[in-house]
Amino acid sequence: MGFKAFHSVKATVDGIETAHMIRKGQLAGRTLPAYQQFINLAG
Questions:
Q1: Given this model, what pLDDT does residue 28 score?
Q2: What is the DSSP annotation of 4-36?
Q3: What's the confidence (pLDDT) of residue 39?
Q4: Which of 17, 28, 29, 43 is deepest in the core (most CB within 10 A)?
Q5: How confident is the model over 1-43, as pLDDT tens digits?
Q6: How far apart are alpha carbons 33 and 24 in whole angstroms?
Q7: Structural domains of the chain, count
Q8: How confident is the model at residue 1, as a pLDDT?
Q9: What is the dihedral of CA 10, 11, 12, 18, to 10 degrees?
């Protein structure tokens, strides 16, 4: 991937890390499905 700005890299990496955390179940106590958790955290 060729990023032209550091903030683009940070946003992409943050999104990937969040998706991994949801998939691993590290956001315990949430009864929402994974896709809904991601939408709530990203938006």
A1: 62
A2: SSHHHHHHHHHHHHHHHHHHHT-STT--S-HHH
A3: 77
A4: 17
A5: 678 888 888 888 888 887 888 788 776 666 778 777 777 777 6
A6: 13
A7: 1
A8: 62
A9: 100
Which residues have CB under 8 Å from 32's CB, separation 6+?
40
CA 15 to chain centre: 3
Domain that holds residue 10: 1-23+31-43
Tell me what pLDDT residue 21 has.
Answer: 81
Residue 14 CA, chain-centre distance (Å), reads 6
Within a 10 A sphere around the Cβ of 22, how many other Cβ atoms?
A: 19
- The number of C-alpha atoms within 13 Å of 26 and in the hemisphere containing its C-beta is 9
Distance CA 3, CA 22 (A): 25
